[in-house]
Amino acid sequence: MPEKVLMTLSGGVDSALAAALLKQAGYDLVGVTMQVCAFEIAAADKYARRGCYGSCKTDDIADARRVAQYLGIPFHVIDLCREYEKEVLAEVISGYSHGLTPNPCIYCNPRIKFGALAQLAQEAGLQFGQIATGHYAKVEYEASYGRYLLKKGMDAQKDQSYFLSFLSQKQLGRAIFPLGCYSKPQVRRMAGEMGLPVSNKPESQDFVSGGYHALLGGIGQPGVVIDGHGREIGTHDGIAHYTIGQHKGLNLSVREKLFVTKILPEKNTIVVGAESELWQRECLVRCINWIAMDSLSDALRVDVKIRSKAELAAATIEPKGDGVLVVFDTPQKSISPGQAAVFYRGDVVLGAGIIDALIHQP
């Protein structure tokens, strides 16, 4: 009897091809898409980039339905607006309001896509054993570890293991990532050859259509901008609109090229300095989710990714209190509290956590 799989369809080409490949392989699919916003945010202008939250979601759901019809699989829309607002939006807005730089996908995948979506689908009477997505990653069971391992996708430019690094063992045990062994050009080509109706659709580029400011709005109060000596050199519109390393939009009447080096939420203050001050050698990471091991007991050599688009950086990690101290071989630029730090060995994700604090300058 074919294995029943809950196929999450976003309306884009990646999930569409993932569904087509699984159907070709003989799986029994039921297609679902998530309704995560009760209303659509008006884009700032007609050139604003598409996002996974905000505008164009009605179109995306319609495209997901067309893909399901083309493949001849049942299709359901699951209303997750309340869950998404509580588990993702509230986390992101709170993080920015406190001077952090959170990554919404880090919360969405374990809490919504592999969490609330699966639960509500079961409550709706849908029958399935596994959950499939269009992520570029791999999951394998390693008998010697007795654990499911999350691994990088083959396409280094599209690898999405970073965004999946907070999935639990139970969630990884149900996950199928059909695109882990393909590159984006291959996906586009195969989707076109199969005649999938979204084969040429542009992919989402942002979390919120039109950028984060469309979501954050007027959050926060104006405050002061100071330099490293504590001298007031300007004002800001609210710390939620700034992040470590930012240069554009500071509107400072100074000759030097300055960057945000610190955000002090307790003082509602932005600290700026030279680009050289952005480089850090150490950081503390908390809220750890271990995947390839139970815990960290001794110092360990790893590669670390401090943001989704960052290059892997060699480092040593060691236990420190309820978290992990990361000591990089070479200083890293713009390490931002609130972002995820993901630990790798080769193509295996060892675990991940949230950057909590910077330790000291190099």
What descriptive keywords fit this protein?
about 350 residues, alpha/beta, six-stranded antiparallel beta barrel, five-stranded parallel sheet, 19 strands
Shape assignment: globular
| Low-confidence runs | 44-49
Residues in helices, as a percent range:
10-25%
Strand order of the largest sheet: 14-17-16-15-18-19
Number of DSSP helical runs: 7
Mean pLDDT: 91
Oligomer: single chain
Order of helices and strands: EHEEHEHHEEEHEHEHEEEEEEEEEE
Q: What fraction of the residues are assigned to beta strands by DSSP?
A: 25-35%
Largest beta-sheet characterization: 6 strands, antiparallel, barrel
Number of strands: 19
Spatial separation of the terminal alpha carbons: 59 Å
The computed structural class is: alpha/beta
Radius of gyration: 21 Å
Overview of the molecule:
- This protein has helices at residues 13-24, 57-71, 81-97, 104-123, 169-174, 184-194, 213-216, and strands at residues 4-8, 28-35, 51-53, 75-79, 130-132, 137-142, 147-152, 175-176, 206-208, 223-226, 232-236, 259-264, 269-273, 279-290, 300-305, 313-320, 323-333, 340-345, 348-358.
- It is of the alpha/beta class.
- Strand 10 (223-226) and strand 11 form a beta hairpin.
- Helix 1 runs parallel beside helix 2, helix 1 (13-24) packs across helix 6 and helix 3 (81-97) runs antiparallel to helix 4.
- The longest helix has 20 residues, at 104-123.
- It is globular.
- It starts with a strand and ends with a strand.
